Amino acid sequence: MTYKNFPMVPRVIFGRGSFNQINDVLAPKRKNINAPFVFLIDDAFKGNPWLTSRIQLAYDDKIIFIPTKEEPKTEQVDALVEDIIVQSKERPSGIIGIGGGTTLDMAKAVAIMLTNSGEAKDYQGWDLVKNQAIYHVGIPTISGTGAEVSRTTVLTGPEKKLGINSDYTPFDQVILDSELTKDVPKNQWFYTGMDCYIHCVESLTGTYLNEFSKSYGEKAFELCKQIFLDDTLSKTDAQEKLMMASWHGGMSIAYSQVGVAHALSYGLAFLLGVKHGIGNCIVFNHLEEFYPEGVALFKKMKEKHKIELPEGICANLSEDEFNTMIKVALGLEPLWENALGKNWKTIATPEKLRSLYEKM
Ligand code: NAD
Ligand code: ZN
Questions:
Q1: 86-127 residue pLDDT tens
Q2: Which residues form a coiled coil (predicted)?
Q3: What are the strands, taking DSSP E only, across the chain?
Q4: CB-proximal residues (5 Å) to ion ligand 2
Q5: Does ligand 1 lie within 6 Å of residue 105's CB atom?
Q6: Position in ligand 1 atom list of the atom nearest CA 163
Q7: Is 125 helix (H, G, I), strand (E, B) or coil?
Q8: Ligand 1 atom 12 nearest Cα
């Protein structure tokens, strides 16, 4: 047995208001005046000087706003990399992603593709990246995905939704400032927060579980219960706790895997463009047989926060469309093996998946 040798984020700042230190953190990393810092910022912050005015741009530094209506695509990464190369005199000193999972993943992927030839789709998979990425910094503005700690950047390519999983993917620096999450709309807060909760349930009930993952997963699970069920928490405390739950949830799956909800949600995302957070919620709501306790608690949280999930999203799909979703979902073999064990194929049959999708 050989054990995996995982990289971790080497530097992290935690604290309310710590975003103010961004310029001091970056200054020593500037290579020269021709090598800019490129800030990829969630478009929720467009026209919001509260955040952007704190970034001191110098020389050729620039801000690019990232649209978040859709999840990141490989072709979008390629286009951004091309633009940055054309517009900069030299390769950038750093890429700084500020936003949700979409923007953080864009930042990671762009940093990788600036030093690796070819197209982003060529690197979807495990350990295909050859060269070290450009220095990259992640600053989450919504909590839950764990993208700030993970070893992957999830991209939708022409053939699949799959991450670029590599030792060069994790951020070199993360800034965790919960104040940046203060204006997240309630529904989105719930969906992305539940991504974290589902990471914990899938990791803690999976066959890949080990003490490393368990220690992080249990902590994140505990925090989620407080955040989503305890009325006495202050808003600030809840924001700080969710930021750390996201981190621990991400660490938990780093050394194990996610499970059935993520596999089915990837199918919905690939075919229908359903976004990760809400997609996981739609799926998880119907997974009592796999995660009885986790789903019961999820329903309690959903009711408490009066969240209404869309229904009937698969009602009008054709035979071909169902088959596409089922193929994408079943292709994620490690997720199924983690959830159901080595004989997962006897349980997760195409017919079983079809019946689950039909309920959604
Ligand atoms: P997201 O990044 O799309 O953000 C959700 C919405 O919230 C967007 O409309 C965004 O503009 C808005 N938003 C973000 N911060 C805000 C703020 N402070 N105030 C107001 N609005 C704000 O969604 P997400 O759930 O954070 O991330 C989903 C993405 O993350 C998916 O693409 C998924 O594949 C990816 N993901 C990656 C990993 C990983 O390990 N790399 C893990 C899980 C999910
Ligand atoms: Zn997830």
A1: 999 999 999 999 999 999 999 999 999 999 999 999 999 999
A2: none
A3: 12-14, 37-42, 62-66, 94-99, 125-126, 136-140, 154-156, 161-165, 173-176
A4: 195
A5: yes
A6: 41
A7: strand
A8: 44
- Return the ligand number nearest the Cα of 270: 1
Between CA 163 and CA 169 the distance in angstroms is 10
Paired tokens of 280:
């996981």
183: its two tokens:
């204006």
Q: Which is the closest atom of ligand 1 to the Cα of 161?
A: 34
Q: How far is CA 196 from CA 132, 186, 213, 224, in A?
A: 28, 16, 14, 8
Structure tokens that stand for 344 in this block: 């997962």
pLDDT at 176: 98
Helix, strand, coil fractions of the chain, as percent rounded to 5 = 50, 10, 40
Inform me whether the pLDDT recorded for 160 exceeds 90: no
Measured in Å, residue 358 CA sits from the centre of ligand 1 at: 27
Domains in the chain, CATH or no CATH each: 12-181 (3.40.50.1970), 186-359 (1.20.1090.10)
